[in-house]
Each structure stands twice: as structure tokens, then as C-alpha cells.
């Protein structure tokens, strides 16, 4: 067992974990952060995407111990949405554009999309498509996910102007 | 005088944002794997690495000793209460089907079959101990290739004596729905055209994003199963029928379910084992599969050979169609596995007036993963075949592919139309959908560009693919299912409960897993009862709440389940009328209901339906004998299938030097009747298109010569990413269905059914000029390149020279 300390969704947490425990398992099993999902075992689907120190990572692709000392944000901490609180602009765009159906890819897709706009606030459709390449969705055909990212990008530009 | 109208605006047709979204986009979802119960134990499966082998010994001693392991079970431990996995649709009385026990007694028949289960205090401990289970196998020859299997070269189940499971035949002459196909073919051979083809339907993996997961809680009076399933009611029935637990003691819950596409309409060994083990240990248990397990053990789809003969006159009038199918069942006959290809039997004639038709389907057992429904189930195969054939026939005759289709399709004024397969199409307008699709697509301009590229011998050639499809959905009229020997009915159930606070609780027997029922059904009820959209709560997916139902598949939820809902709502109104009359001191005959209000003819007096609900709740002022409830339920059995249709057009650029395909444009005009929520409909179409395109270009479940699934992960099985697809140009036409009150048609599968042939026709259209007649799906760059090279070689005569030597 290894002791780790990190910040998850704004709260400090510390725990003893098995060295082989994946970050996604730590989040789900130890912290009950079940908003972050697991869709594969080859790091291909992106369902587990969270932010580590502000950037999107696949939390199935790293060990919990590697997150020691870091700041992790999951879909549950992206915005203070409890009790009807306001959605993050990307969440709002996904809702507005009907960018989800079963919702299983959605937390990862949103976390990846937020990071994508962080890197490139004004992406072309092709840049969005390539930027989301590591996140699979089986339901939407991506059409409305692309629309959602474009909508969030436009809203972001509006906010800056 | 102006009267302010505070009635809610019409909800049907509005692009309401979904009620489901908030929990899903904020991470407050409740998928099965999220569930944790006190004392819960975890299962890990030991699976066979061999496609076909005798189990000679299983040593579980080391695993049993491992720390935190509670138990290890093998087939020897199972008793009758473990049940069996059922096949609900024996397509012929003499169908051969091996018994499908949750664990096979002494022989595994596909790679991935479970041979032992480890139960431990954590999932990790269970997985570790599973590695310690020592299984000795004697490998047996495996039946893998479908054509070899049908020839009984190697037997998948030696005790059955054959791999042939069932032969199902429909013949229009015999059925009295049309002529003799052999006559039509021989006439065409002497004085017409005969197109003969053999197409391969690649094996597909549904690849829902949420891996299957099951939790069973045996504590308390009711045994509860949570499962990532499309079919909680069917699972409940099958558990009761096979495991000896009374149905009334079983509660099955499908909480949030992460996609299904047919892949989760199964009853599975994993569920049955979890059920049995929880009962053995009197402890809650959970099993969640890994993606690799999902790929090899959850059922696959398609996998057929289609031998096709199309007869036509020289003028392009189709005179007959003969279909000979060989369909791979995999190693077991899944719940509706045998029936899936048979569903296609009614659809090969598609939108065309074909005078003579023969369909024969041979289902075949092999030592591969079992197959069953995957989005479209039988109809994509049929649509692919006929739409390919029509384009090939047009090419053969040098006719415009639209002109040929129009010459043969049912005209809009000919509905209702009884087809050669014996179905009555209620409505449609193929002319309108096609005209509109050509317009949106820019058909003429793209054809002009195609000609330019051809003339200039551009290395990048343009191809245009057409698919004018229809399908039968809304499963299903119970009578028809009965005539096909299906083991259940096709009705659906709904109830509407008017709560004291004015809210409305709607319960549906359908079970959504991404389709947006909570939103669309709220819209229907809001309009029907004249209550605010926000006041409607739709409940589903829990057999203790939704006590009766047949779940979600076959694009049935709206056209069958929605109709049940409409009828339940109408009953609520009927029940409320005498109450309103009493409260308003009027005669029932004078009560009118409109926009949520009961009024008295010729007066201003009235009451809202919520006020009536409140009055029956308190029941302080009801006449003797009046039931203090206006709640109602309805069970609806459709009398016909439902027939969405549309025209799909695809343009691709094919790089003739590399075989690379780039999709330029995809336009579709789908006629799905009246639309409840255009946003949801569009989403269904987009997702459907992606899956149909994926069959054409990317996906293929491949086994090696020993029967191991080679494409067993997302590394090798190419579920398309955003970068592999384009934005779609999706539109609607509408001829309302006449077989349900709202005039709706199913939309869940349409995109998948229509798109595969549109894409392959486009690829072929680009390369036919090089003598290419077929490219096996998925049309990978390597295959496209090889087809062009082979075609060119034949053209220049070099191939025949080569063959001579
Ligand atoms: S679960 Fe992390 S990429 Fe699939
Ligand atoms: S919404 Fe279902 S996988 Fe993306």
C-alpha cells in the first residue's frame, strides 16, 4: 500500500492504495466518483477522461499513485451543479445540442472537449474531430458532439468579447 | 373580449431538450457498475481460450485458497436452479439447438465461453484468483468458416450430428402472394436480364459503450437484479421460467443503460451465474465485464452469405427475386438468434413491386461467438442486398439508377399496398423523399463533377451511392409473431397515474437506454392530457414499477409503446369525465375535454384535469359507487408493422492510387411519419448512419484459424471516431402512419438499415469504370486498391494471361 494525497474536485483526499490501482478505480471505488466511467481496457474509449492539473487524461491509463500531489477534476467537479446549480458551458452545450444519448461516453467527452477548447479556443470542424479522436461514442455519430463543441467555442468567444 | 390562453402550446413536434441529460452530463448517472451494496461480493470469469475443446480437468484448489476468495464454482457445482439460457424463437419445429447452460458441462464451444467463476471480496481479488484456476483442455477441431460449417466438414456440436440448425423458407407462389420465381428467372435468362451475386455480410460487434454489468441482491423477500439490459421484463420472465424462482419474487431493474443496439436484448450466462451465486451465498454479487470480455462473449451481429438472383426485363422491370441465405448463429442459438435473418425475409422486396419471390435461410452453428440482433436485425442485410442489386441492374442495363428504381417502386397513390412477402404497407411516398433528397444532395452538380473527374482521368474519382429503403419495425403484431413460432407476444403496456399534487406519473413497459423516452413520452402526455411538460414524469426499466412490458428493440418504443400511452391517457380522460360532470353539476353528455380542461357545453364552467385528480384524491365529494381514481392503463397490440422509408445519398472520393475513401457528403431524407421530437429523431438518424457506415467501411469481427477473435479490442475492431466521420445532411419527409393514433413511424434503426448500401454503392460507383463489380465489406483501402488493380488487370487482359500460365 502506498499513501497518496491529492485534490479531487476541490477537496483534499488522502488514502492508502495498492500500487497497481488505476486512477479511475481510485476515483470510482475509493471516492465514489462514479460519474467517471470505464468503457474499455485498452485506453481507447476515453470514457474515463478527467483533468489532471488542468489537462485531459485518461484515468484508466495512469496509476493512482502517479496522481499523488496533483489536482484532479472529474465531471462531478467541473461545475457546481448540485441542487440545480449552473452547468459548465460545455455541459450546457451538450444539453442544448443533443450531443448525448445513452450518456456513457459523455463525461469523458465533455472533459476532453473542455481541454480541447483550452488548447484551441477557435477550432475548425476538422480540428474538433481530430481533437476528439481518442473518445468513442456509439450513439450520436458525433454530429451533435461536434455541434456542441462549436457552440461552446462560440459562447466562449462571446464571453471574451 | 380577449381571453388569455394559458393552455400549454403543442408539445408534439417541439425540439424539447432532453429531461435525461442533466444527470448524465453532471456525472449523477446510475449505471449498474456504479451500484455498491453492503457485503457485496465480486465475480470474475474464467474463460476458455479455445474455440472448441473438451474440458478434461479443472483445478480450483489454489484459487479457493487465495485470500479474500469466497468461492469458486464450476459446472459440476451447478444444479437445476442455475437455469438455462433460452432461445425464444425456434424458427422451425425441427430446429437444432444445443442446450445452453450458464457453464458448459465438459466441452467449450467458443473462445470466451465461461468455464469457472471466482467469487471474492473485491473485483481485483476475484480477477487475481481467476488466473489461478487451472483448466485442462483437449482441443477439438473447430467449425469456423461458415461455408465449411454448412457442409458439415467439422461439427460445432458433435452430438447434434450436423451444424445445420434450421431451414426457413418463404415462397410467394406457395403463399399465394406472387408468382413462381424459377419461371421468372428462366424467362429472364432467355429474354431479359439476370443479375446473380453473392454478398458477404461481415460479422459485427454491437460495441455499446457501457460494458455489460449485473448486480444481484438476494436479501429481503424479493430477489433483485440490476442489469445493463434492454429487456428487464424478458429477463425476469426467463429467470422465472428457468431457475424455479416464482416470477412474483423477482424484480429486475435496468437503471441507466449505456447503449444496446440489440446487443443487450440477450439473456446471458453472466446474468444467470450472478443470479445463482447470489442465491447460493445469500450475499449481493456484482459482475462487470471488461471490454475484451464484452467483445468476445456478448453476442455479435450479421455474419451471413447472401446468394441472390434478380430477374428483370430488358426494359428494367423486375420480374423475380430469389434469396438464399446462410446465416452464422455462432455456437448457441441466442434468444432470437435464429429469427434475426428471418426478419429480413419480409424486406428483400423492399419498396418494389416484385411479382415473384423466394427466400430460403439456412441457419448454421459454428464455434464462434453467438449472434443475435444488432441494430436493424435482418433488415440491413435485406436492404443491402436489394439496393446493391438495383444499382447493379441499372448499370447492366445502362439505365439511370433512379429511373430504374422508380420504374419498380410502389407509387404513392398505390398505398396501402400488399407486397409479395405478404405485408401490407400502410403509407409512404418514395417519389417525394427521393426528389427532396436529390435536391439537398445537389445530385446533378455532383454527377457533373463525377463526369469531369472521369473525363480528366483524375486519380481521385467520385462515386455516388443510392439507397431507397424501407423497413418493417414496431415489433410486433402478436398474431404475426405467433405464426412465426415466436415465444411471446408483441404488445406493449402503459399506465398513467394522476397524482394528488397535479403531477402525472407515466409508466411505460418499454425500457430506454439512450432513446430519450422520458422526454418524448412527456411530450405526448403533455399534449394528450393538456398538462405542462415539466409535470410529467416517465418511469421505466424496473419491473416493480413498470409491472408489465416487453421492453425496447426493433424500433418499437414509440409506435407500440407510445400508442399504449396514448390509449392509457385517453382512458384517464374517459374516467375523469363523470367525475368532472358530477363536480360541475352537469350531465356527462355535456362535458367536453380540450387542452387539459373539462368544460360544460355552452357555459364557462370548467375544471382542469389536475383539479379532477385532486378531487378524486380527497374523494370527499363523490357519489356512491364512483371509483376514487382516474388512473388508467392500456395494453396495445399492433395489427401491423410500421414502415418508415427514405432516400439516402452518399458521395465518396476514392483515391484510385491508394484505395483511400473520403466521404464527401451524406444526405438523407427519412419519412418517419409524424415527429414527436425532431431533435431526438435527428440524433437517432445520426447514430444509425454512423453504425451503417461503419459496417460498410470499418468494422469486422475476425477470427483466426483457431477460432480466436482477432479484433477483440477497440485497437483492432474499428468503431469509428469523430475523425472517421463527417457531418450529416439529414432531413425529413412525412406521410403519417395510419396504424397508430399519432401517425408515427419507428426511427431507431432506419439510419443503419439505409446507409450501408448507400456507402458501398458509392464506392462501387467510383470504381465500376475499372471493371469492379463487388468489394467485400468493410471496404478498406487495401480491398479497394486490390479491386481496382484486379479490375484493371482484367480490362487489359493481363490477368487472364497470368491465369493461363
Ligand atoms: S476506460 Fe479509459 S480509455 Fe477506455
Ligand atoms: S451517448 Fe452513448 S456512447 Fe456516446
UniProtKB/TrEMBL annotation, chain A:
Pfam families: Fer2 (PF00111), Fer2_2 (PF01799). It comes from the Bacteria. Residues 2-78 form the 2Fe-2S ferredoxin-type domain. Pathway: Alkaloid degradation; nicotine degradation. The keyword Iron applies. PROSITE patterns: 2FE2S_FER_2. One of its GO terms (molecular function) is metal ion binding. Keywords: 2Fe-2S, Iron, Iron-sulfur, Metal-binding, Oxidoreductase. This is Carbon-monoxide dehydrogenase small subunit.
From TrEMBL, chain B:
Keywords: Molybdenum, Oxidoreductase. Residues 1-14 have a biased composition (Basic and acidic residues). InterPro entries: Ald_Oxase/Xan_DH_a/b (IPR000674), Ald_Oxase/Xan_DH_a/b_sf (IPR036856), Ald_Oxase/xanthine_DH-like (IPR016208), AldOxase/xan_DH_MoCoBD1 (IPR008274), AldOxase/xan_DH_MoCoBD2 (IPR046867), AldOxase/xan_DH_Mopterin-bd_sf (IPR037165). SMART domains: Ald_Xan_dh_C. The keyword Oxidoreductase applies. Residues 1-20 are annotated as: Disordered. GO terms for molecular function: iron ion binding; oxidoreductase activity. Residues 26-141 form the Aldehyde oxidase/xanthine dehydrogenase a/b hammerhead domain. This is Carbon-monoxide dehydrogenase large subunit.
Amino acid at each position: 500500500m502506498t499513501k497518496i494525497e491529492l485534490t479531487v474536485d476541490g477537496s483534499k483526499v488522502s488514502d492508502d492504495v495498492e500500487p497497481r490501482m488505476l486512477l479511475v478505480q481510485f476515483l470510482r471505488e475509493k471516492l465514489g466518483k462514479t460519474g467517471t466511467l470505464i468503457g474499455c481496457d485498452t485506453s481507447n474509449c476515453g470514457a474515463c477522461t478527467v483533468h489532471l492539473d488542468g489537462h485531459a487524461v485518461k484515468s484508466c491509463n495512469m496509476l493512482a499513485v502517479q496522481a499523488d500531489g496533483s489536482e484532479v477534476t472529474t465531471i462531478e467537479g467541473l461545475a457546481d451543479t448540485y441542487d440545480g446549480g449552473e452547468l459548465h458551458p460545455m455541459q450546457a452545450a451538450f444539453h442544448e445540442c443533443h450531443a448525448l444519448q445513452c450518456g456513457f461516453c459523455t463525461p469523458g467527452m465533455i472533459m476532453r472537449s473542455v481541454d480541447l477548447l483550452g488548447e484551441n479556443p477557435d477550432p475548425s470542424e476538422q480540428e474538433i474531430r481530430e481533437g476528439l479522436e481518442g473518445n468513442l461514442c456509439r450513439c450520436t455519430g458525433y454530429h451533435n458532439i461536434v455541434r456542441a463543441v462549436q457552440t461552446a467555442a462560440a459562447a466562449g468567444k462571446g464571453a471574451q468579447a | 373580449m380577449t381571453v388569455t390562453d394559458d393552455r400549454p402550446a403543442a408539445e408534439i413536434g417541439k425540439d424539447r431538450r432532453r429531461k435525461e441529460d442533466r444527470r448524465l452530463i453532471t456525472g449523477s448517472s446510475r449505471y449498474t457498475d456504479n451500484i455498491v451494496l453492503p457485503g457485496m461480493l465480486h465475480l470474475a470469469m474464467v474463460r476458455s481460450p479455445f474455440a472448441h475443446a473438451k474440458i478434461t480437468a479443472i483445478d480450483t484448489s489454489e484459487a479457493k485458497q487465495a485470500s479474500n476468495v469466497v468461492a469458486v464454482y464450476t459446472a459440476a457445482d451447478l444444479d437445476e436452479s442455475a437455469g438455462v439460457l433460452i432461445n425464444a424463437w425456434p424458427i422451425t419445429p425441427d430446429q437444432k439447438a444445443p442446450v445452453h447452460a450458464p457453464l458448459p458441462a465438459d466441452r467449450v464451444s467458443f473462445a470466451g465461453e465461461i468455464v469457472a467463476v471466482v467469487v471474492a471480496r473485491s473485483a481485483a481479488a476475484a480477477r487475481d484468483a481467476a488466473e489461478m484456476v487451472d483448466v485442462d483442455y483437449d482441443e477439438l477441431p473447430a467449425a469456423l468458416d461458415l461455408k465449411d460449417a454448412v457442409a458439415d466438414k467439422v461439427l460445432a456440436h458433435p452430438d447434434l450430428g450436423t451444424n445445420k440448425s434450421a431451414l426457413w423458407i418463404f415462397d410467394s407462389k406457395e403463399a399465394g402472394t406472387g408468382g413462381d420465381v424459377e419461371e421468372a428467372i428462366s424467362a429472364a435468362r432467355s429474354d431479359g436480364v439476370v443479375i446473380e451475386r453473392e454478398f458477404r455480410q461481415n460479422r459485427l460487434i454491437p460495441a455499446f459503450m457501457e460494458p455489460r454489468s449485473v448486480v444481484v441482491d438476494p436479501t429481503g423477500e424479493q430477489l433483485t437484479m440490476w442489469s445493463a439490459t434492454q429487456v428487464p421484463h424478458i429477463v425476469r420472465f426467463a429467470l422465472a421460467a428457468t431457475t424455479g424462482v416464482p416470477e412474483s419474487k423477482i424484480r429486475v431493474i435496468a437503471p441507466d443503460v449505456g447503449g444496446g443496439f440489440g446487443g443487450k436484448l440477450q439473456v446471458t450466462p453472466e446474468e444467470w451465474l450472478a443470479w445463482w451465486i447470489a442465491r447460493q451465498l445469500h450475499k449481493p454479487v456484482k459482475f462487470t465485464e471488461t471490454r475484451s470480455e464484452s467483445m468476445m462473449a456478448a453476442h455479435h451481429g450479421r455474419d451471413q452469405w447472401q446468394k441472390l438472383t434478380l430477374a428483370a426485363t430488358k426494359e428494367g422491370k423486375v420480374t423475380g427475386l430469389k434469396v438464399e441465405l446462410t446465416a452464422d448463429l455462432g455456437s448457441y442459438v441466442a434468444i432470437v438468434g435464429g429469427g434475426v435473418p428471418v426478419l429480413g425475409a419480409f424486406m428483400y422486396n423492399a419498396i418494389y413491386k416484385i411479382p415473384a419471390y423466394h427466400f430460403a435461410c439456412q441457419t448454421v452453428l459454428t464455434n464462434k461467438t453467438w449472434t443475435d440482433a444488432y441494430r436493424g436485425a435482418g433488415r440491413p442485410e435485406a436492404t443491402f442486398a436489394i439496393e446493391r442489386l438495383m444499382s447493379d441492374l441499372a448499370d447492366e442495363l445502362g439505365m439511370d439508377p433512379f429511373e430504374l428504381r422508380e420504374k419498380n417502386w410502389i407509387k404513392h397513390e398505390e398505398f396501402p399496398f400488399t407486397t409479395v412477402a405478404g405485408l401490407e404497407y400502410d403509407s409512404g411516398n418514395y417519389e417525394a423523399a427521393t426528389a427532396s433528397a436529390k435536391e439537398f444532395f445537389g445530385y446533378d452538380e455532383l454527377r457533373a463533377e463525377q463526369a469531369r473527374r472521369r473525363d480528366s482521368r483524375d486519380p481521385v474519382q467520385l462515386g455516388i451511392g443510392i439507397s431507397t429503403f424501407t423497413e418493417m419495425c414496431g415489433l410486433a403484431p402478436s398474431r404475426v409473431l405467433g405464426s412465426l413460432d415466436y415465444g411471446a407476444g408483441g404488445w406493449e403496456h402503459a399506465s398513467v397515474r394522476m397524482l394528488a399534487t397535479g403531477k402525472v406519473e407515466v409508466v411505460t413497459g418499454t425500457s430506454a437506454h439512450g432513446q430519450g423516452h422520458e422526454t418524448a413520452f412527456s411530450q405526448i402526455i403533455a399534449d394528450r392530457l393538456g398538462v405542462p411538460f415539466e409535470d410529467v414524469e416517465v418511469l421505466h426499466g424496473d419491473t416493480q414499477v413498470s409491472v408489465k412490458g416487453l421492453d425496447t428493440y426493433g424500433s418499437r418504443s414509440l409506435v407500440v409503446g407510445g400508442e399504449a400511452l396514448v390509449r392509457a391517457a385517453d382512458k384517464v380522460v374517459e374516467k375523469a369525465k363523470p367525475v368532472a360532470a358530477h363536480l360541475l353539476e352537469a350531465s356527462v353528455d355535456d362535458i367536453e375535454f380540450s387542452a387539459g380542461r373539462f368544460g360544460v357545453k355552452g357555459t364557462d364552467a370548467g375544471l382542469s384535469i389536475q383539479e379532477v385528480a385532486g378531487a378524486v384524491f380527497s374523494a370527499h365529494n363523490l357519489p356512491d359507487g364512483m371509483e376514487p381514481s382516474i388512473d388508467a392503463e392500456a395494453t396495445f397490440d399492433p395489427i401491423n408493422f410500421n414502415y418508415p422509408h427514405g432516400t439516402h445519398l452518399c458521395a465518396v472520393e476514392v483515391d484510385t492510387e491508394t484505395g483511400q475513401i473520403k466521404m464527401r457528403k451524406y444526405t438523407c431524407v427519412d419519412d418517419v411519419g409524424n415527429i414527436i421530437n425532431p431533435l431526438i429523431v435527428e440524433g437517432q438518424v445520426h447514430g444509425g448512419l454512423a453504425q451503417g457506415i461503419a459496417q460498410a467501411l470499418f468494422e469486422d469481427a475476425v477470427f483466426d484459424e483457431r477460432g480466436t477473435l482477432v479484433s477483440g479490442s477497440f485497437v483492432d475492431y474499428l468503431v469509428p471516431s469523430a475523425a472517421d466521420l463527417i457531418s450529416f445532411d439529414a432531413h425529413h419527409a412525412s406521410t403519417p402512419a395510419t396504424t397508430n393514433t399519432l401517425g408515427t413511424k419507428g426511427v431507431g434503426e432506419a439510419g443503419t438499415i439505409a446507409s450501408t448500401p448507400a456507402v458501398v454503392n458509392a464506392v462501387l460507383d467510383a470504381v465500376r469504370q475499372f471493371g469492379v463489380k463487388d468489394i467485400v465489406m468493410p471496404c478498406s483501402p487495401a480491398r479497394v486498391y486490390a479491386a481496382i488493380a484486379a479490375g484493371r488487370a482484367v480490362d487489359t487482359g493481363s490477368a487472364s494471361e497470368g491465369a493461363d500460365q
